[in-house]
């Protein structure tokens, strides 16, 4: 049996951060990850989308979905007041994340020409656009526009950077190991984790277990240790589409994606190219290519009507209100595209997908405001499961700040 003071299951934005923080405080930490170790530039290999009524995009690899992220790092007043309303103050943790992830606003001169065009048109239409804070080292970025396939130049700071730093401080990492069972050991307070690794089984034991397998997978493990019907409920995915068409102007395919955005009523709109657009346009009989496309993402804050079933199956669900918000956003994005010079009849829309699964062990429903779980000593959650719906914004900044907060609670627990 492998023993460790702390075991962290899952190495994404949440798991990577909590493992980094505890290792840097001198605790003995084992981070287990189902996926493999890939470099930032190879992370497209780790795509592991989950098919459901709304397809959910994610990655399974060391560092998790953050490796595919566009580097957006948002913590605006709307998000923060919601978390404060739950009795959680993240001010100190957010400052630390900002520093660890080198979060800055893209300088105006580094904004892609298409983003600048969007910004001007959105401003003219009274939509009060903003520049997106990013965890991107702009001096390394070559503006290839392929952030979502991993960064070939390693210009994007992610959870993987924290894990690599923590390994130098003694963090132990095992990849290719999937946690399948969690239980309490009889006779002492240790927690047991059974894992599958390359066709075999392994047994691990720890004093503190941190579940950070992502909002789609944490609930199945938590439910084995904590009997609460709310575990797995409240799944949101922030559904989005990309729409666009050909025009006579700068392409949206190149440059940092989502470099600017407009935050509107229940949805956001931001410059974004999707490889799914050209086939959609071709199906409509519209001739377009990567060099002459104008395209925007519309993302909504869904109400969290999805669920992880006790079997582990994932059910995504958009309410009537979510669908209405998405249609409103698509309507507004069409107006923006037409104002930019795209012909209304030439606009195609991709299928709805989600990339921000969260809400399935939310603070205030499953986890207490101090990030402990009532009646479930030694077990902690540190991923997007903690965020109650709705969100509708890039969640990594919030997930990392919550993971730092969870690390404090775990430290208190271990020192008791
Ligand atoms: C294409 C794309 C772009 C995005 N862009 C942004 C962005 O710019 N900004 C932003 O804020 N957000 C972005 N997101 C969303 C963001 O990446 C996720 O919300 C965030 O990374 C989730 O972190 P997490 O720790 O909750 O889970 P994850 O990152 O999903 O990590 C969970 C990890 O646990 C592992 N795991 C699962 N089950 C087990 C198990 N049983 N045993 C062991 N390991 C397990 C998984 O393999 C995975 O590596 C994007 C997402 C995608 C897909």
Give an overview of the whole structure.
The protein is of the alpha/beta class. It contains 9 helices and 20 strands. The chain has helices at residues 13-24, 77-85, 91-100, 113-124, 159-167, 218-222, 277-283, 320-340, 396-415; strands at 2-9, 29-33, 55-56, 104-105, 130-131, 133-134, 172-175, 177-184, 191-197, 200-211, 233-235, 240-246, 260-263, 267-271, 293-300, 306-308, 314-315, 348-349, 353-354, 379-381. Strands 1, 2, 7, 8, 9, 10 and 20 form a 7-stranded mixed beta sheet that branches. It has a 6-stranded antiparallel beta sheet with strand order 5-13-14-15-12-18, with helices on both faces. The protein has a 3-stranded antiparallel beta sheet with strand order 11-16-17, with no helix packed on it. α1 (13-24) links the parallel β1 and β2. α1 (13-24) packs parallel to α5 (159-167), α1 packs parallel to α9 (396-415) and α3 (91-100) packs across α9 (396-415). The longest helix has 21 residues, at 320-340. The radius of gyration is 21 Å and the shape is globular. Flavin-adenine dinucleotide binds at residues 9-15, 32-35, 57-58, 60-61, 64-66, 68-72, 148, 178-179, 212-215, 217, 355-356, 383-384, 394-396, 399.
